[in-house]
Amino acid sequence: MELKQFNNLLLNIVNEIQPIIQTYLTNNKLIETYYDYPEVTYEKDFPKFSTKFYTNCPVKYSSLFLTKKSDFIDIYDLESVKELIKILKNESSFINKFLTNNIKQVFEEAWGELLIFRITLAEIIDRALLLFGFSTPTENEFLQVSTPIYNYIFAESYTYDVYVPILFIKFDFENKDFENYSITRMSNDIQLARCNALKYVPGVNYSLEACATHAFVIHDIQKKNPNYSFFEQNTEDEYTLPLKEIKAFFSSLIVHNNCKSGFSQIIIVPHDYAPEYTATLQYIRSFRVEDYPNYFKEYYWNSKSFPCIEERFSENILNTTKKI
């Protein structure tokens, strides 16, 4: 299946379901929100992480048709969804991504209970409505929603960057590149996504975790797209994290600036690739790997000053990282 066809099929679904949702809302039906939603505010030195509950959270339109308590229509009754499923049933890549081994054994009876894809389709609808509202996006505009899911299903390989937030160091520059490395100020989108990932970590200390404006980034790593569902991965399928290069970078901070830093999170940021969506958050994979001085936990975030690295030292730091 070509991207253009996939994009148009999903766009047809969004266009067909919009007036149904609007009618439902006009009748004052209850609708949920993404209630535990990340929030990032910016203070003097570092960001501050928190989560919002219910108030001012994105609307979860999919809650209308992902619960048995709702009297909303079955999404699989939509003609546009029937057309999509009819075509996708013949796509082996789709079968491998969205059918577990148990369901594959009863393939013909499985479509009405295809819960994994039902959730993914709901997330696509949510994302489109939150991005574009109740309007009709153009085919080109809608590509930002459809392309990452398409690549997850059909691409042979994909590219990603590794972000390692640099704790308790300030920088007097936005970005510095050296070959495939960089020191980069993290965008608000990345900060929100990594904040959201941290809520699944037991006992997480948001005060500590938020204290990073920049990240050490390793760019353009390629990975073969696995021929199985994202939801069936095991530990052997995880990314090979470049810990040697990461530790070399933090050692070079000490060599050139005598700056002690560390990290607690390694983030995979794919290029146009996503198996799932959460509202409008950027899709990332977050891994918990802690390596920083113990005194960081002792309310170090309340310190009056923090080390600062000037741009004139940045290339030497990255060059040394490459050599170590």
Please describe what this structure looks like.
The chain is an alpha+beta fold. The protein is 38% helix and 20% strand. The protein has helices spanning 3-26, 79-88, 92-98, 101-104, 115-132, 139-154, 188-198, 206-209, 243-257, 311-323, and strands at residues 32-33, 37-42, 47-52, 59-60, 157-165, 170-171, 175-178, 181-185, 214-224, 263-270, 285-291, 308-309. The strands form 4 sheets. A 6-stranded antiparallel beta sheet has the order 7-8-9-5-10-11, with helices on both faces. It has a two-stranded antiparallel sheet with strand order 1-4. Strands 2-3 form a two-stranded antiparallel ribbon. Helix 1 packs antiparallel against helix 2 (79-88), helix 1 packs across helix 5 and helix 1 crosses helix 6 (139-154). The radius of gyration is 22 Å and the shape is globular.
